[in-house]
Structures are given as structure tokens and as C-alpha cells.
């Protein structure tokens, strides 16, 4: 028995209510709530209020949903690394630009980045994402090292540790940031830069 | 049928191999790996290599294990708030002292604090822990506000946001800290303080 299938990933399908983007948005919310491993296609279908076969109109299964969601977060983060503010100028300023862009991206893509940052590498798709995360971390570490070489880094700070802590600060946003309470992405980026570039302690 | 039970929480029981502390250590590792919700008493017993009833010699069930583990992390963190370095002196220095102590505690009690920081409030025990976490956060926010009032905070930084970011940085350690790679607790605390109190950017 052959069933006519709607073309995948067109962003439009026969079933009303969901295109791939809105389906992905719901799936990511469920993954973040229940954990990816704890989410079955049954659970997804129930939460979406559609049948499992309606989900298969869009994607081959939950693995593909995870892949698409992680790629969305990673592509957004990597896009930040190719902007002019990150590819020219003094390295300390490039680093600041990347921190600001990363805060923007975390705020704009919060559920997707949250999913990415919780990935532990249990499946091939997750391990692929971890490899790209590591590439991003190494890019950041490279900027910090160059800033140190240009003499713009506070003396005594280890570049590797500094880059881990710096993005530890940025990434911590997913744990506590609430737009209503904690202000806009711009205010948040200003606060992150003030803390991590100028420091809390008022200069004498 | 009545079975003689070893006294609970004595730290010593009839079964060889586990006292409450070592049982708790394994349980916390399993909770961190599989998630608390995803860990059954069967899974715990298997991982411990003992029977479920041997676990019941020590605790009433997995809820009590969670409660004990979260209390251990919280008690350690709160102990830091009553040290002399945090109860006297200028507030900016009290804050620095608490940050250093908190880094020490995270490193010393890493699995317990990891469990604490992943709690989402799905059960009464978790909600109780979240209430205490909030008290800790408010204590930190209080120090930051007083430091601002004493004129020791970098101008333009919002005290509430600063305290969230500061402990966001500290708490991020659970995601990436590896003792072999990232140095001792002392080196780590120095780096955290250098980043968040002095800032990355070398003063002109």
C-alpha cells in the first residue's frame, strides 16, 4: 500500500497548523522539558495534537528533529564568528563583539541553544553537535590568546581558562534569563561585557 | 514476617561495601547520568550491585536520597555565608570571599552541586531545595547591593543582574570543569575572581 506523501521540509503541508518550523519549535520545547531520550514520537504527537504519521510528513523521526534543532543553534552561533566585528580590529574588541552577538543569539534562539547546551553525546547526532561546539570554543580560545599576545588581556589570566569562564558566563543565561525580569538582549549584553571585560570592582 | 533492620543513617550497616555516604555518592552519580526522574530503585540497586531491600536499610527510598544529596550541597554553600570573610569588612571583599568559597565548594562537592543546579522543581523535595537556592541567591544579591552602596561597584552595572551573572559564571563550572585540565580549586577561584572582579580587558 502506497501513500502519497507531502513533500518534506517545504514549510507547508496538508495538515493545517504546523509547518516544519512550528513543529520544530514545539518539539524543542518538549525535548527541553522531558529530555530528548525521554521523548517518544507518541509523546510528541500527543503534545502537537496530531498523529505520528503527520509528523513523518515533515521528518524521518525524532533524530532528524534533534539534528535540525541543534543545527539551527550552531549555525546562528557560527554566523556570529564571520561578522566584520569579529574578523577585523584588535582581538580584545573582536572578542567583545562575539560575546555581544552570542548573547543576542542566546536570547533570540533560547530553546534551541538550551537544547544544544544540554547535549551529552549519547547519539551520533549529539556527538556531531559536540564536535561543532568544540570548534566554536576553540575559535573563542583563539581570540583570547591573540588578545593576550596583543597585550590587551589583564595580566595573570590563563587564556584557556578565561575563554571557558567567559562563555560559561554567557551560556549560564539559559539557566536564569527571563526577558520580562532581566531586560532586553542589549541590556543583558551590556551587563555581560561590563562584568567580564571591566569587572565588578570599581577601578581605584 | 519481621526482619531485623540495621539502624538507618548510622554510616555503618550489616551489608559490606556501602555505608550511607558511599551509597549516596553512587546514587548521585546515577541521578546525574540518567536524571532523577529516570532513575528507579531497580536501576539504583543494579548499579550498586545490591538488592533493593539493602538500600532500604539506609533510606526510605529515592526521595530521601535526593533530599540528603541536595541538603549536602546546600549546607556546604550556606556554610560559606557565615564565615568571617563574608560577615565583616567591605562588601565587595565579602562578595569576593563568598565567590572563592563557592568555587571551592563546587569543586569539592561537584556531583552534589551538579544535581542541585539541575533541579527543576518537579517534586516537593526539589521545590524545597529551590526555595533554599533562592535564599542563597538573595544573600548574594544583598552583598552586591551593599557593595554598590559603598561605591565599590563598577558604575553602570545593575546589582541584580550582576549577581545573577556572577553566580552564573561560578555555576557554569559544573558544565566544563575537569580537575586535570583546568587546575586546582585555588587556580580556578583566582581565574573566576580575575575575570569577574578585574575583567578581561587590561586597564589602560
Protein architecture, described:
Two copies of one chain form a homodimer. The first copy, chain A, has 204 residues and is mainly α. Chain A has two domains: 20-60, Homeodomain-like (Arc Repressor Mutant, subunit A, Orthogonal Bundle), CATH 1.10.10; 70-198, Tetracycline Repressor, domain 2 (Orthogonal Bundle). Helix content of chain A is 69%, strand content 0%. Chain A contains twelve helices and no strands. Chain A has helices at residues 20-34, 41-48, 52-56, 62-81, 84-87, 91-108, 110-118, 124-149, 159-171, 173-176, 179-182, 185-198. In chain A, helix 4 runs parallel beside helix 8 (124-149) and helix 6 packs antiparallel against helix 8. The longest helix of chain A is centred in the last third of the chain and has 26 residues, at 124-149. The radius of gyration of chain A is 20 Å and the shape is elongated. Chains A and B meet through helix 9, helix 10 and helix 12 of A and helix 6, helix 9 and helix 11 of B.
Amino acid at each position: 500500500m502506497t501513500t502519497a506523501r507531502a513533500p518534506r521540509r517545504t514549510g507547508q503541508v496538508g495538515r493545517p497548523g504546523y509547518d516544519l518550523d512550528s513543529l520544530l519549535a514545539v518539539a524543542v520545547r518538549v525535548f527541553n522539558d522531558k529530555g530528548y531520550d525521554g521523548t517518544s514520537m507518541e509523546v510528541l504527537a500527543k503534545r502537537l495534537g496530531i498523529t505520528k504519521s503527520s509528523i513523518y510528513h515533515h521528518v524521518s523521526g525524532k533524530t532528524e528533529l534533534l539534528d535540525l534543532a541543534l543545527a539551527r543553534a550552531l549555525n546562528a552561533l557560527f554566523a556570529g564568528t564571520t561578522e566584520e566585528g569579529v574578523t577585523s580590529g584588535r582581538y580584545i574588541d573582536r572578542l567583545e563583539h562575539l560575546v555581544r552577538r552570542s548573547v543576542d543569539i542566546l536570547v533570540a534562539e533560547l530553546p534551541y541553544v538550551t537544547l544544544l547546551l544540554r547535549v551529552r553525546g549519547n547519539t551520533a547526532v549529539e556527538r556531531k553537535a559536540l564536535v561543532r561546539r568544540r570548534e566554536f570554543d576553540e575559535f573563542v580560545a583563539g581570540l583570547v590568546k591573540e588578545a593576550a599576545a596583543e597585550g590587551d588581556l589583564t595580566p595573570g589570566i590563563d587564556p584557556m581558562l578565561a575563554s571557558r569562564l567567559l562563555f560559561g558566563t554567557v551560556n549560564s543565561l539559559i539557566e536564569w534569563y527571563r526577558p520580562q525580569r532581566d531586560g532586553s538582549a542589549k541590556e543583558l549584553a551590556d551587563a555581560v561585557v561590563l562584568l567580564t571585560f571591566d569587572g565588578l570592582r570599581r577601578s581605584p
